[in-house]
Amino acid sequence: MRTNTHTYTHIKTDLMDHFKACYVVIGRVVHAFISCFLYVIFIRSVSLRGDSLKTMFVAVAIDGNNHILPIAFGLAMENNPYRFTWFLIRLREALRHGREALFITNMDDVVSSCIKHLFPDSYHGYTYKSVFMYMRTRGVSGRTLQPLF
To answer: Which keywords annotate this record (predicted)?
Structure first.
């Protein structure tokens, strides 16, 4: 039987053994990311629809040809700072590289504070779409912003 070495999964349950969160990273994907990619990681949390409200956390990288390399996935029963911190701790354990990274996220104070706390030597930036939307909510017109992006 073949196995995927260095694949890392973590499942969190409560005291009654009910599902709370899970995390999955595939070892070969992490190896490819560490050896072949720039350390630019895009992180996003997405609320899933359905009967049970869940949140999916995703960390991906993009290569020189704009192909996406999914690095890590997480699924949690709720979206809160504790669960996002838990996801980032698992990601840090999987990467364990010691190199600085650049994290690109949406404009979210929870995400920013978690990244600053868990990856103090790394850089953090925002997607152009989230900056664009933030400026529009502050009263700057779309026509003024469009040439900037």
So the answer is: Membrane, Transmembrane, Transmembrane helix
> Is residue 143 classed exposed, middle or buried when 0-12, 13-18 and 19+ CB atoms within 10 A define those classes?
exposed
| Contacts with 145 (C-beta within 8 Å, 6 or more apart), sequence order | 132, 135, 136
Is 17 within 8 Å of 84 (Cβ atoms)?
Answer: no
Structure tokens at 27: 């070892």
**What is the rounded CA–CA span in Å between residue 18 and residue 46?**
22
In this predicted model, what pLDDT tens digit does every residue of 71-102 receive, in sequence order? 999 998 877 788 888 899 988 888 876 677 88
What is the rounded distance in angstroms from the CA atom of residue 8 to the CA atom of residue 23? Answer: 8
Total-model pTM: 0.79
Q: DSSP state, 5?
A: T
Plot region of 26 (φ>0 → left; ψ -120 to 50 → alpha; else → beta): beta
Q: What is the largest CA-CA distance in the chain?
A: 60
Residues 6+ apart with CB under 8 A from 148: none
